[in-house]
Design goal:
The chain is of the alpha+beta class. It has helices spanning 2-10, 15-18, 21-28, 40-58, 95-98, 172-176, 225-228, 238-245, 269-277, 281-285, 292-304, 313-330, 349-364, 366-377, 383-390, 401-408, 419-428, 439-444, 453-457, and strands at residues 66-67, 86-93, 113-120, 122-125, 139-145, 151-156, 192-194, 197-200, 210-217, 250-253, 264-267. The protein has a domain at 40-278. It starts with a helix and ends in a 7-residue tail after the last helix. It comes from Amphibalanus amphitrite. This is Mab-21-like HhH/H2TH-like domain-containing protein. Belongs to the mab-21 family. Residues 282-358 form the Mab-21-like HhH/H2TH-like domain.
Length: 464
């Protein structure tokens, strides 16, 4: 369909003049698959609480802190023991928390839930930090920098009875297996792997696939550059910058290659959520471009571009794609929260070349891609009919995507097998504002729950 749209546009005498890109962007942004939920905060708070309750129950507790099985490295020294290790907090991260997850058009694939288990019982200290006594029972760990900025090693503090000269490592590989020692989290089945995370889907409690990852909190944020950075667009606001700088970063295990067995990486997932929520509506329209690299580019541009430039959503999307293509070509895209870190570290030359070419190609095909996406949702139109409908001066009323979806759209078919599935669908698929008797709203949200939708519409589902 994308190629059909390209051919149609190429056959016009002056495609740019005939088809204002913003008209197509406005239509695409109404689709249920990419619409941003402006009332996201209450839903996330509820889902955060639900995920934490479920995780704690599966770990054998009711509320944090929930003890984990003590780490006893085989043949290890007494300094390597972590007797007080526990889950202090369970929270969502990634696209689910950001409200940037996507329902694919085929309705079969959903974004996974990224769940972070913040650990207590390990006191992590950065070199040069003032000595502060650890909490009773906690094990002191010291950060040692590596050659790659943002990647570190964790060393156990030596005890008087230690016989070894050098500090022993708390390996990221050991941390990755902490949750795997609790079979209930994985329904008694062998957990999968997704980089450093363990994957599970424990129905009916966790109906979507979940990536589970442990993390360790730092006492501080090890970057002074962010607070002192010059911001031409006066974004983020000074108050938010101060709050971000006062929020400790996290350490998460790195991937599963032999070279990364012991390494940990700085994570700014708490900070990312805060700045994403501070974006303006127009800036968040560009947030529909996915992938961590595109989001990083968006945050850098939000600091640099004048606020008025974001009114051109199509041009803003092109600016984000162009920045990613240029960064991949230069083999460097700085982490937004720590400019010394390169988020492209670890990618091969072939992967970076492909990233640069893909971003440039998408920028060149953005109009036709948006047309293909919109037409594939609105089965009532072919790509050509959709583009004709958007031509100025419009011979027909402006395209109302919501109404077209209500009259006949391709809605994802979901077969829930438990009440929890329905609740999570409502949260994740942004249907928390659906009201009984509102079929247009229900269809526009992209939900079609067989056997339940009709009962909802006649008001018979209040108790359920």
């Amino acid at each position: 369909m994308c190629e059909t749209a390209r051919a149609w546009l190429a056959g016009r005498p002056d495609p740019a003049a005939l088809l204002p890109p913003d008209a197509l962007v406005a239509a695409a942004l109404q689709l249920p698959y990419i619409t941003v939920n402006r009332g996201h905060e209450p839903a996330i708070a509820t889902l955060d609480d639900t995920v934490e309750r479920v995780a704690c129950l599966l770990l054998g507790g009711r509320r944090p802190p929930v003890p984990l099985r003590p780490v006893e490295p085989p043949g290890g020294c007494v300094c390597q023991r972590l007797p007080a290790l526990a889950v202090r907090r369970v929270l969502l991260s990634g696209s689910s928390r950001e409200c940037s997850q996507v329902l694919l058009i085929d309705g079969e694939t959903k974004s996974d839930l990224d769940v972070m288990f913040e650990l207590a019982g390990a006191d992590v200290c950065w070199p040069g930090e003032a000595e502060v006594p650890p909490e009773p029972g906690s094990t002191r760990l010291w950060v040692r920098r590596t050659e790659q900025e943002g990647f570190v090693l964790l060393e156990f503090e030596q005890h008087a009875e230690c016989r070894h000269r050098e500090r022993r490592l708390f390996s990221a590989a050991v941390a990755r297996d902490l949750l795997r020692a609790h079979p209930a989290l994985f329904g008694g089945r062998e957990p999968g792997r997704a980089g450093p995370a363990s994957t599970t889907a424990v129905r009916p409690y966790l109906p979507y696939p979940c990536d589970l990852l442990v993390c360790l909190p730092l006492r501080r944020w090890p970057s002074e550059e962010y607070g002192a950075r010059r911001r031409p667009a006066d974004w983020p606001p000074p108050g938010l910058v101060r709050a971000l700088c006062a929020t400790p970063a996290l350490l998460v295990p790195v991937g599963c290659t032999p070279q990364e067995e012991h390494q940990w990486r700085l994570s700014f997932s708490r900070h990312e959520y805060a700045v994403y929520r501070a974006l303006t509506d127009r800036q968040r329209d560009c947030f529909e471009l996915k992938s961590y690299y595109l989001k990083t580019a968006l945050l850098w541009l939000a600091e640099r571009r004048p606020p008025g430039d974001w009114e051109d959503v199509y041009g803003s999307m092109l600016a984000v794609l162009t920045l990613v293509a240029e960064a991949a070509g230069q083999r460097r895209l700085s982490c937004y929260f720590n400019a010394e870190m390169n988020v492209l570290t670890g990618r091969t030359e072939a992967e970076l070349t492909e990233l640069a070419e893909s971003a440039a190609s998408l920028a060149g095909r953005l109009t036709s891609c948006l047309a293909a996406l919109t037409a594939s949702c609105l089965q009532r139109f072919t790509v050509e009919q959709l583009l004709e409908r958007l031509l100025p001066p419009a011979p027909a009323p402006p395209l109302d995507v919501s109404r077209e979806l209500a009259e006949g759209c391709r809605a994802p078919m979901v077969e829930p097998d438990h009440g929890a599935d329905i609740l999570l669908l409502c949260w994740l698929d942004r249907a928390e504002n659906v009201e009984p008797g509102d079929p247009i709203n229900f269809r526009r949200r992209g939900l079609c729950l067989p056997g339940l939708r009709d009962r909802w519409l006649v008001g018979e589902m209040e108790e359920e």
